[in-house]
Design a protein that fits this description.
The chain is built from six helices and five strands. By secondary structure, it is of the alpha/beta class. Strand 4, helix 5 and strand 5 form a beta-alpha-beta unit. It is globular.
Length: about 180
C-alpha cells in the first residue's frame, strides 16, 4: 500500500507523514517513508527552479517510491509525482513527454490526501515563504488532479486534529492497534 500527502509547500505534509507512520508503527505495521526529495536537490528549487531541477526531483521521487515499495510494507510519501509535476509546470510549462509517465504513475498510489493551506509557509532554510507562490502551486495541483482524473481525499482545514484518522479510515486501516484478547481460565 502506498499513500501520499499532496499539496503546496509549508502545509504540514512532513509532520503528517511522521504522525501517520507513528500510528501505523503502533499497530505493528511495516512502514517506509519517502521524504520530500526536493530538499536534497542539488539544483535550484522553489520559484527559482529550472526544468532540469524539476526533472531530477520527479524522477528521484519515482526511484525512491520504487525502492520503498520493495520492502512490502506501507509506504508513506511526503509528496507525489502529481505535486512534483505541478512545480515543474509552474516553472517550465506543460511537458507532453512526461505526462504519460505521470498519468501512469499516479495510479500506483492507494490514496492521495490533499493537505490544505491554512497559513503562509514559514522559513526553514529551503522553503519559499511567498504566499502567492504557495497558492499558485496549490491551485495548479487541483487543476492537474482534475484534468488527469486523479482522486484525492481533501483533508478538512477545520479538523487538523482528525486528519490522520481520515487517512486511516479512507485507506481501510484500523484507527487503533488490535487488542490482545485475554482469556480467563
Amino acid at each position: 500500500m502506498k499513500l501520499a500527502f499532496i499539496g503546496a509547500h509549508g502545509v504540514g505534509k512532513t509532520t503528517l507523514c511522521y504522525d501517520l507512520a507513528s500510528r501505523l508503527k503502533r499497530q505493528d505495521r511495516v512502514v517506509d517513508l519517502v521524504m520530500e526529495v526536493a530538499r536534497r536537490s542539488p539544483l535550484p528549487i522553489n520559484a527559482e527552479t529550472t526544468l532540469s531541477a524539476q526533472q531530477w526531483i520527479l524522477h528521484t521521487q519515482i526511484a525512491e517510491e520504487v525502492a520503498a515499495s520493495a520492502g512490502g510494507g506501507i509506504v508513506i510519501c511526503d509528496r507525489s509525482v502529481l505535486d512534483n509535476y505541478a512545480y515543474l509546470v509552474h516553472s517550465s510549462g506543460r511537458q507532453p513527454a512526461v505526462e504519460p509517465l505521470l498519468r501512469d504513475w499516479v495510479t500506483t498510489y492507494h490514496g492521495l490526501f490533499k493537505v490544505p493551506i491554512i497559513e503562509a509557509p514559514s522559513f526553514d532554510g529551503r522553503r519559499d515563504v511567498n504566499p502567492g507562490f504557495q497558492g499558485a502551486i496549490d491551485r495548479l495541483i487541483d487543476e492537474l488532479a482534475a484534468e488527469f482524473g486523479v482522486g484525492c481525499t481533501a483533508l478538512d482545514p477545520a479538523d487538523r486534529d482528525g486528519w490522520i484518522d481520515t487517512v486511516l479510515v479512507e485507506s481501510g486501516l484500523p484507527l487503533r492497534p488490535p487488542q490482545t484478547e485475554l482469556k480467563l481460565t
